Amino acid sequence: MAEPNATSMAPGARRDALRIPCPGFLRGHALPIVVALAGLAAFLPAASKAIPVQLVSAKRYYTLSLAGPAAPGQESRPYVRYQAEWRLVNKGSGSSFEIENDELAYLPYLEYRAWVDGVPLPVQKIGNRYFFRIYLRRRQTATVQVSSLQRVLPIDPARKIDEFEDLIEWRGWMPPIEDYWVVVDLGGIYTAYRQQVPAFGLGGNGPAPGLSFPQFLANRIVQISPGGYQQGAGNKIWWHEQNVWKPQEYFTLRVRWQAWYR
């Protein structure tokens, strides 16, 4: 099966008061990447008992990119764009709950938006926590979408290592999860590396480094977790699960790479 693309997930124009860490959101060290990537998770209720809502499917798409210096002498700046789409079915009575995501100091949000069935939702922030509320009527089916942009700040300047990490929690929903995708698009940063511009510390306008994408993964990407990912067209890696009845409590999506541009 081919992996989903970002366009297909983009929003059009993305017990009472349960608090659920965003299904598909990961807590990150450097903005949502080793995939372990701000989540394969499903929305997670604060209580250990599953709520009567089925997470039918989830698509989480992370794009890592590199912007050039804002001014001469400044460094290039890595970012992560996150797009997610969850399809929910309420199997019980009317339910109201919150979806939340914590902001890490080295992965600050530049924007954070949410929709239900294409209608924008008000997003609140208290401290380092972003959250929004959802209400589902009895037997209602709804599509929830989230889009965010995060700046990746250095976590190890001495070693020139940057990192993105997310904690994916997907327990707490009524099973099964029929289809779950996590896709990390590394095409932007791979293309930037091959352009060999002075901002990357490579100097001059010589020929681009002769690294294929698999070689780039092996030589410039320090860590990708969890393992078991697949590679696809467009310089992407992905994880795909189907018919999940007993998901593990959580896992970490992490991507760590050499920051040759700093």
Please provide a written account of the structure.
By secondary structure, the protein is mainly beta. The chain has a single domain (19-258), classed as Immunoglobulin-like, CATH 2.60.40. The chain is built from three helices and 15 strands. An eight-stranded mixed sheet has the order 6-5-9-3-2-11-14-13. A four-stranded mixed sheet has the order 1-4-8-7, with no helix packed on it. A three-stranded antiparallel sheet has the order 10-15-12. The longest helix is centred in the last third of the chain and has 9 residues, at 187-195.
Give the arrangement of secondary structure elements.
Layout: H1 6-9, E1 18-21, E2 53-67, E3 77-90, E4 95-102, E5 109-116, E6 119-120, E7 124-126, E8 129-136, E9 141-151, E10 161-169, E11 177-185, H2 187-195, H3 213-219, E12 221-225, E13 230-232, E14 236-244, E15 250-258
